[in-house]
Amino acid sequence: MTRFALAAFVAAAALVACGGKSEAELTASGKELLAKDDLPGAIIQFKNAIQKQPKSAQARLMLGIALFESGDPVSAVVEFGKAQELQVPDEQVLPTLARAMLLMGDEKKLLAQWGTTRLKDAEAAADLATSIASAHLRRSDKDSARQSIASALQLLPVYLPATLVKARLLAAEGDFDGALALLDQAKAPGDARDGVLRGEVLWHGKKDTAAALESFKRALAANPKAVGAHTSIIAMLIEQNKIDESKAHFDRLKKAAPNHPDTLFFEAQFAYASQDYKTTREITDRLLMAMPEHPRVLELAGATDYRQKRYIEAEGYFARALKSAPSLLVPRQLLAQTYLRTNQPAKAVEILLPVVEGKSPDGTSLALVGEAWLQAGDTQKSDAAFARASQLAPNDHRVRTAAAMAQMTQGRSAGAVAQLELIAAEDKGPRADIALISARLKHNDIAGALQAIDGLEKKTPERPIAHYLRGRVLLLKRDIPGATQAFEAALGKDPNYFPAVASLAEIELNAGKPEAARMRFKALIKAQPKHYQAMLALADVGMRTGATREEVLTQLRSAVKANASEPMPHLVLIGQLLTYDAKAALNAAREASAALPNNFEIMEALGRSQLAAENAEQALSTFTKLAALQPTSPHYQVRVAEALLANKDADGARRALRRALQIKPDLISAKRTLVSMAMNEKRPQDALVIVREMQKHSPEDPVVHTLEGDVQASLKNWDAATAAYRTAMAMHKT
Questions:
Q1: Mean per-residue pLDDT, 468-489
Q2: Residue range 229-245: average pLDDT?
Q3: pLDDT one-digit tens code per residue, 358-417
Q4: CB contact at 8 A, 140 and 159
Q5: SS3 content of the chain, % helix, strand, coil (to 5)
Q6: What percentage of the chain reaches a pLDDT higher than 90?
Q7: Per-residue CA distances from 645 to 637, 654, 676 (Å)
Q8: CA 572 to CA 563: how far, in whole Å?
Q9: Across the chain, which distance is largest between two alpha carbons, in Å?
Q10: Rounded CA gap, 237 and 235, in Å?
Q11: 692 close to 686: Cβ distance less than 8 angstroms
Q12: Secondary structure (3-state) at 151
């Protein structure tokens, strides 16, 4: 069909749609369809009326109402705005507009624009006051919520929506019996809203999941399109780990309200659970365009970036979520974890202080504070935080496991192992078992590790992880047949389980069977064409078995092309190019930086590539930005020093290295650079002083003894140099 024919077809279709009816007739028809709950038909009629008369105030208003009822609050708000421009009275617009803004999570804007508005019509005023109360309640302003509810009930003493918000306020204050009693007094058991709220109180307050589920089902019987009932049932099934059932019920929700924000949010959550982070971000981006400050959407967007190690972006989303809803605990804990992953323990403690020093501290937050103090080097405060966490959550196996692992980090292995054994025996989940296996292996207790793996297998009979771990332990025993059998068993549970595929390929490579190893990775790539780990492994096999440089690079570039949003393929390609072609490495690093801006690893690779390509000033700019983004990371200060040295600024480099040592006094890389600088400046005695300090901090590190050998050799102290090299060789024969 040509462009002109298509235009004619569209025009004809529009004429058919409008027919000969007037704007008033189309609006009246839309109202009839809306009354019959035919929302798609009503929306079409109202749009046809607007096409006839764009300034039809009633058509704009009714289209907004129909869009809101269909679960599209964003479009509804747009139409309500146009209706207001056309002078539709506030009594007709504001009640539904306020509810649409609530659905979008825009409580702050709702309160700012309409929080003090008083309408003349009693029913409209009570409706608006109820929405204002809900907005206050969501922002944890219970006193203001209480005042708004009182205003609504003063206008309409038996107004059910206000009574429901009042019951929700009682539940928020912990008076669950009072909330249920108020719902009983309202005498609205056939109302879906009553059923949803009653179910939430029974579920979260009374911990009666069976009764809650029945209440949600009654709500759906009253209104099959009750989104709140659908979402509560899905959330309950997820909590009970009934994932297949939750997905089946989600399909019902999607049919009932395909464009509702809650539907999209759950779709994003399921994508996140499946590690489909690309889809998750596509949906959260779409939601945030319409509701940019919705805390739960911000939380999910941040969690997605956190999982992909995009810590700067994650930090921004979590901070925005807390700004919108300071009382939310999960984004606060996730922000603390982000600070821990980026070596900012002081910020992690600071963000959790309102919780751990508040009226209701929780074990998870205290455990995170304990981890932060441990990272900061204050074992006394760390122990105190973990002790409080264990007291507050004696049955929380995650908290107890974290406390045991902290003991392990501090060198108290015996107590940690004993604690992990107790937790593993009690906990139905695998977390403590995996930690116990790790602890056993750390002490070379092969038999104990295998025993712990047996326990893990009983808990995870359908998963490959226990078989895989058994294979790794058997490799330590040099039991190749046993390890092979274990890895094959893991693939029996999941044919595409990469760790087992890689382990079997390694065994085949060591046995001189490179083609068998290649075939394993090719089979995995055929099953999952974007599996970048398999692509990188295939390139590695090529490097180890004599493939040409171009063949290896072709494979690496394929991995990058198929997975542009994953940092690892970029990093491997850049690392490979850095060995022989600095210009090509720099081009690859620039492409990676464009695809993944502000990713720390990519930024560092860019800086290294700039140094290798002799773009010292650009490298200094890149590393300085990294150091500013991560002010508590000594590693990036060392990188700054390297760039300053390349710019022939030795004094600046020394200052950067001192900053690194202020953060971490025993940082080997910083001291090694200082030794190198002293040697280049013909100051071997100063270099020797630094080496002696390094030996005090790290007497078992062969690197520091090798450095001493280098310094002594420069001084022609041959006996001392030989002794230092022999000490290093005794520690690590290389």
A1: 94
A2: 89
A3: 888 888 898 898 888 887 778 788 888 888 888 888 887 888 878 777 777 767 777 778
A4: no
A5: 80, 0, 20
A6: 51
A7: 12, 9, 11
A8: 13
A9: 107
A10: 5
A11: no
A12: helix
Cβ distance 472 to 503 under 8 Å? yes
Mean pLDDT of 529-558: 93
DSSP state of 649: -
- What separation in angstroms does the CA of 215 have from each of 194, 219, 232? 9, 6, 10
Amino acid making up residue 619: A
> Quick one: average pLDDT of 504-520?
94
Task: Give exposure, 380-415, as e/b (b: 16+ Cβ within 10 Å).
Answer: ebbbebbebbbebbeebbbbbbbbbbbbbeeeeeee
Taking the C-alpha atoms of residue 477 and residue 303, their distance in angstroms, rounded to an integer, is 39
* Torsion 701-707-708-710 (CA) sign: positive
659: tokens are 């900053």
Average pLDDT over residues 432-446: 84
Residues 491, 527 contacting (CB under 8 angstroms): no
* Of 370, 390, 392, 394, residue with least CA distance to 380: 370
Q: What is the reported pLDDT for 73? A: 86
How far, in Å, CA of 565 to CA of 595, rounded?
6
Residue 15 is predicted with a pLDDT of 35
Q: What tokens were used for 273?
A: 């659970």
| Own/partner long-range contacts of 86-89 (Cβ < 8 Å, ≥24 apart) | 86/55, 86/56, 86/57, 86/60, 87/57, 88/57, 88/58, 88/60, 88/61
**Residue 63: what residue type?**
L
Tokens 């295998």 — which residue? 450
- Residue 249's CB is within 10 A of a number of other CB atoms, namely 20
Instruction: Tell me which residue of 159, 237, 164, 151 sits closest to 196, measured CA to CA.
Output: 164
Residues comprising the chain, all counted: 734
Which amino acid is present at 130?
Answer: T
Q: Give the Cα-Cα-Cα angle 343, 347, 352 (nearest 5 degrees).
A: 120
Tell me how far apart the alpha carbons of residues 684 and 717 are, in angstroms, rounded to a whole number: 12
Helices within 443-548 (DSSP H only): 446-459, 465-476, 480-493, 498-510, 514-527, 532-544
- Alpha-carbon distance of 619 to 605, in angstroms, equals 10
Q: Which amino acid is at 409?
A: T
Beta-strand ranges (E) seen in 142-220 are none
CA dihedral defined by 639, 644, 650, 656, rounded to 10 degrees? -50
Where do we find the tokens 């600070």?
339
DSSP classification of residue 494 = -
> Is the separation of the CB atoms in 75 and 43 below 8 Å?
no
Q: What is the 3-state secondary structure (H, E, C) of 286-306?
A: HHHHHCCCCHHHHHHHHHHHH
Please write the tens of the pLDDT for every residue from 311-329.
888 999 999 999 888 888 9
In terms of Cβ atoms closer than 10 Å to its own Cβ (0-12, 13-18, 19+), residue 649 is middle
| The predicted structure's pLDDT at residue 630 | 80
User: Does 11 have pLDDT greater than 60?
Assistant: no
Q: What is the DSSP letter of 205?
A: I
C-alpha dihedral sign at 167, 170, 172, 176: negative
Q: Which two tokens stand for residue 331?
A: 């984004």
Residue 272 burial class via C-beta count within 10 angstroms: exposed 0-12, middle 13-18, buried 19 and up: buried
